[in-house]
Amino acid sequence: MARRYFGTDGVRGVYGRDLTEDLVERLGRAFARTGAADVLVGRDTRSSGPALELALGRGIATGGGRARLGGVLPTPAVALLSVEGGGAVVSASHNPPEYNGVKFFDAGFKLGDEQEEALEAGLDDPPASPVPDAVASEADLADRYADLVCERFGAPLQGLRVCLDCANGAMSGIAPAVFRRLGASVVAIGDEPDGTNINVGCGATDLRLLSSTVAAEELDLGVAFDGDGDRMLAVDAAGGEVDGDGILAVLALHLGVDLVAVTQMTNLGFHRLMGERGIRVVTTDVGDRYVLEALRAEGGRLGGEQSGHLIWLEGHTTGDGLVAALLLGRAVLERGRPLAELAAVMQRYPQAKENVRVERVELPETLLSAVGEIAADLGDSARVLVRPSGTEPVVRVLAEAETASSAERLCGTIAALVRRELG
Fold it and tell me: Catalytic positions, please?
């Protein structure tokens, strides 16, 4: 069954237009009726968050469940703290402040396609009378999450000088405190959320402030989280960007894994490096939950996306920007080498990307056939990827080749095909 509301990472939309309190309440009710009797609810720092948090709580209560409202919490905190029940996060992740969304967890793991389809099928079920005290607030959960992260993933970080860009989001009060607790010297930016500035000129969607701060302060590295803290990107001491592929390459070699799960977006250079080091790579559809499913199926521990979702399953259930940042900081310290040098082990193929805005995101067979013919002629020297966005009315085009000019030309050719068929 085609999903109407769920994309690659939950339900998202502009608050009050695509994402209403009524829809969120119905989502909560349907989630409770799938068997989620006790649900921990967290949210990011958007001004629409409190109203949607309450709507979600009402839905859970009128679906026969109990809702524990935790206030501002990173998505991975909700995952870690709800491994014995259900979890839900009110967040639109890296999207602008006017957006919001909801994503759900079952025993700490994101819902699969079939679970999301079942949830959508129950959206019109009538409400029931909630039990007394079915919605209650719960305090100190951020501290419990910080304790778990330090206990499971922490190590001495004395001597590490790091800038943390918290995107004015859910990591603002947590990530700097955890790094300082472990001994790092921290410069924090993007850590003053006001409800309207999440992901605005900061965080993983805009690394300019982080890059300039790291270079000006002569720090070892910088880390940028997204609004709900489930992904991160980094910059080296000179302010040069290290994306999810580069971070994953550093961690794969440092942690000594024999398998890594990635998505179709992952750079060809990563695949070649892993092949040279004898590390098996499993490739999935775009979306961190598909990476997670592959890791669980293959018995792997490490995976991620170019966008910065990094998953380390030894002690966790989902992608966690703070955990990934700690692992990266430990790699720099324990290897005794700058991040730029560690990341340079992966020879990156130039990539060109374009988001083509369309009226409909379904890809017709004629388009897929034309793209397939072009891809077949490329051999192993280049590749193309065309996929509909799970969160916006756009088709995403990626081209990768041995030179930047070749990648740009290839991307332009494919984008023109998409416009001709769907524009």
Answer: 93
Give dist(CA 60, CA 24) in Å, integer.
10
CB atoms within 10 A of CB 366: 11
Domain at 143-343, CATH from 1.10.8.60, 3.40.120.10, 3.40.1410.10, 3.90.1590.10: 3.40.120.10
* pTM greater than the 0.85 cutoff: yes
Q: What is the pLDDT of residues 247-287, one digit of tens each?
A: 999 999 999 999 999 998 899 999 999 999 999 999 999 88
- CA proximity to 165, closest of 289, 395, 325, 386: 325
367-378 burial by CB neighbour count: b if 16+ within 10 A, else e? Answer: beebbeebbeee
**Phi, psi angle pair for 269, to nearest 5°:** -60, -35
- Superfamily in which the 6-139 domain is placed by CATH: Alpha-D-Glucose-1,6-Bisphosphate, subunit A, domain 3 (3.40.120.10)
Residues 227 and 293 sit within 8 Å (Cβ to Cβ) = no
| Token pair belonging to 3 | 């999903």
